[in-house]
Amino acid sequence: MPDEQLAPRGTDPAPHGEPGPDDGSGAGERSGGTGQFDAARTPGTGAADGPEEPPGAGAGRGHEAPAGAGAGRGPDGDTRPPARPLDAIDRDILRLLRADGRASIRSVAERVHVSRGNAYARINRLIEDGVIRGFSARVDQERAGHGTIAYITLKIIQDSWRTVREQLQELPGAAHLALVSGDFDVLLLVHTQDNRALRDLVLTRIQSIPEVVSTRTLLVFEETDLEPEL
């Protein structure tokens, strides 16, 4: 789509690459519900013989982050203590759970060659440290009825990032949001049902935000999800 330039609003937009003093702030984390790892709060890596798996662990559902996981992270930064260093076993556990979030404690322990108690305690620690933020299904957006994908770039009024972020997070189909440097200030990834829904989202919802100066919409023809190496 071409540039969707808005009429001047009487306020100077942020200079390119200078989105304001909020640069680098991130959205608050959403914590999961109380989950199956609540029972084992043993710090460290655990003893050789740990607790048994909770009934039904890994059967038909994924591990869930305990209530409050990620708490302490405010909208303007992370106030939690730094995460503890990861060793090779921690990274192996993360790879396994990223590939199959429904894997049982027994399965994880066997594949990384540690006791169930050790695996249980390690996963708890990864959740408490915020390394694991939750467990969710990976959805094929096209098969789920969202056949149109687009990146939308936005130029916004200086010092308006927090306000704009809150409004963009509420948009239907918003999948990723970032404050960036360069020729624009914000990068937004959206999934919509079709091009008509995308047009309405841009022209009706996004451009009605007072702090948005202009937008540009980039249709995605094909995409591939990549997993960064741990």
TrEMBL record:
SUPFAM superfamilies: Dimeric alpha+beta barrel (SSF54909), Winged helix' DNA-binding domain (SSF46785). CDD domains: HTH_ARSR. Residues 23-35 have a biased composition (Gly residues). Residues 1-87 are annotated as: Disordered. InterPro entries: ArsR-like_HTH (IPR011991), AsnC-type_HTH_dom (IPR000485), Dimeric_a/b-barrel (IPR011008), Tscrpt_reg_AsnC-like (IPR019888), Tscrpt_reg_AsnC/Lrp_C (IPR019887), WH-like_DNA-bd_sf (IPR036388), WH_DNA-bd_sf (IPR036390). One of its GO terms (cellular component) is cytosol. The keyword Transcription regulation applies. Keywords: DNA-binding, Transcription, Transcription regulation. One of its GO terms (biological process) is response to amino acid. It holds the Pfam family AsnC_trans_reg. Gene3D superfamilies: 3.30.70.920, Winged helix-like DNA-binding domain superfamily/Winged helix DNA-binding domain. One of its GO terms (molecular function) is sequence-specific DNA binding. Transmembrane segments: none annotated. Residues 75-87 have a biased composition (Basic and acidic residues). Residues 86-147 form the HTH asnC-type domain. This is HTH asnC-type domain-containing protein. It comes from Streptomyces cacaoi.
